[in-house]
Amino acid sequence: FPSTGLSLEEIRNLTKPFGKVKDILIVSSHKKAYVEISRKSADSMVKFYTCFPMWVERNQLCISLVPELKDLNEEVIFTAMIKDANSDVNTEMLYTQFVHLGNLPDEGYSELEILCVGLRFGRVDHYMVITNKNKAIFQLNSAESAASMCRFLKKYPYSLGEVELTVSRSPRIEPTAADAVKKEVKKQEAGQESPDLKTIPEGSGVVPPSAVPPTEATEDHGSNSDAIPDTQTERLGSEKMVR
Question: Which of 103, 175, 195, 240 could form a disulfide with 179 if both were Cys (CB 3.0 to 4.6 A apart)?
Answer without folding.
Answer: 175
